[in-house]
Amino acid sequence: MAQEVSLKSLRESEREVILRVLYRDREVQSIEEERIRKLKTHLQHLRWKGSKSGSQEYQQKSCARCQQALGLLLNRGAVCRGCSHHVCAKCRVVLRATHAWKCTVCFEDRNVKIKTGEWFFEERAKKFPTEGSQLPPRCSDVFEKKCDSAYYLVCLS
């Protein structure tokens, strides 16, 4: 898929420009990876905060997110379509377009998938099951060997 590029035919100034672009790409990708890591850490924290642990006593019918007791007539809770947990009214987020709702964890999970682009690969995997499992290579992964060899060539000249 990746095409071999010969750096020997390039002038030194062209090699330096390519190196700067590749190093900048590496920096941008590391910043993006850090942003994604923070989003996923926040999501994991929400999941952990809302989970019912076996060490504590919970009422049979309580909100899966905040553990508030759910009533028989008022604030009975409802089942989230995303995770099938009972959640109270405070732990729901209404989606603007459809006026449907999701629990806070499912809503944040949806946001993380949107912000990271994971939704695209999930949908592609559903549509094309054999192709969808393979992620495309990152630009820096494809050119990393070339970057190192170009840097070596620049240093030699």
Report on this model:
- This is RabBD domain-containing protein.
- One of its GO terms (molecular function) is myosin binding.
- It is found in: Cytoplasm, Perinuclear region.
- The protein has 157 residues and is mostly helical.
- It has one domain (12-50, 62-134, 143-156): 2-Layer Sandwich (Herpes Virus-1).
- It has four helices and four strands, in the order H-E-E-E-E-H-H-H.
- The chain has helices at 12-50, 104-116, 118-127, 139-156, and strands at 78-79, 86-87, 92-94, 101-103.
- Strands 1-2 form a two-stranded antiparallel sheet. It has a two-stranded antiparallel sheet with strand order 3-4.
- Strand 3 and strand 4 (101-103) form a beta hairpin.
- The longest helix has 39 residues, at 12-50.
- The radius of gyration is 24 Å and the shape is elongated.
- It starts with 11 loop residues before the first helix and ends with a helix.
